[in-house]
Structures are given as structure tokens and as C-alpha cells.
Amino acid sequence: MKALKLISIAFISFLLTDILDAQEYDFSTERLNGLEVRKFYTEEQFIEAFGEPDYISSAIHDYFVYERVITSPSPAAVEDIVGGVAAEKITDGIGFISNQDGEYRIEVYTIHSDQIVFNDYIRVGDHVSKVFDMGGTTLECKNEDGSGYIYWVPEGGPEEPYIEWNCFPAFYYDKNGIIEMIQSYND
Fold first, then answer.
1. Is 150 in contact with 174 (CB distance < 8 Å)?
2. What's the pTM value of the predicted model, to 2 decimals?
3. Burial 107-125 (b: 16+ CB within 10 A, else e)
4. Contact (CB, 8 A) for 127 and 148
5. Which residue numbers in the chain have pLDDT < 70?
């Protein structure tokens, strides 16, 4: 019983620390690795924030694509073996438009790795509760198995019933509440 109380106190302390830490951040907009979404930046600023892309893809938008290899806890998800460890190949895509000055603006994104940080605070692999730490307005859609996703609108964004949810980022999480993907895709 004493151990359970200590675990409960430690968990509450962990949650309070996260909430207090969240107060240090600016959650008034969307930022990826420090670059504000829908604002123009030079190629050098993009490369500094995200690194050199593995390739550029074109679909509805042009995308800087970053291929990543992560170790996989699930043998079912294994696509490869790297150094004797189960691994999975994933990609992060940063969709952009460019202007006549050769600058880029983030329009859409799909993040599967922990290499890109949202608002300097949250990344793939974090617990979904961190989304609520950012304040703003949220809409949660939960599946029967406990997985789901949460749309997030920053403070000062539109109010209900005028929110077009699919125009804002969604944080997809597994049945344990761990974020597996962060995506903003509107067409």
C-alpha cells in the first residue's frame, strides 16, 4: 500500500511538472522545430530546422521528405533489421509552397518520428495528455480500443461552431495514449 501511495504521488508530481513546464511555452500558433507554419523562410532556415531532406516529392503540395529508421517494439511492424535490432522505416513530410523570392512556407505536414517538435513542446512518442497542456480548443475522437486523435486549435483561433477542424493539427495516439503521428493536412 505504501508503494502504491509513493507511485501515485510520483505520478501526480510528474503531471504537475508537465503543466508548470507548459506555461513556459508560446502556444499561440503552430511551429515545427521552431518554424511557424504558414510563414515564409529561406532554404537555409528550413535546412537548419529540419536538416537536408532525403528527397522532394510532389503531390497536391511539394514535400520535403525525411526518411527515418526507428527501432520497433513490435515485430509485426518490422520492415528491416538494423544491427540485429528490429527496425521500421518511416517518413516525415513537410508540405510547402514557395514564393518568387525562393522562400518556403509550411502548408501541411505528416510527422511519424520524434525528430520534429511541435511548438517546442510535444513530439511523437509523448503522451497525448500534453496536447491539453497547450490550452486552446480541442476535439477528441476516440476509438473503441482506446486509440484515437485530438484536433488542436490555438488560443485566439476560431470558436465553435466556426472551427473547420480539418484545417488544424491532429495528434493521433495508440490505445496507451502515446502519440504515433502529428498531422495537419487540409486540401
1. no
2. 0.81
3. bbbbbbbebbbbbebbbbe
4. no
5. 1-23, 72-85, 187
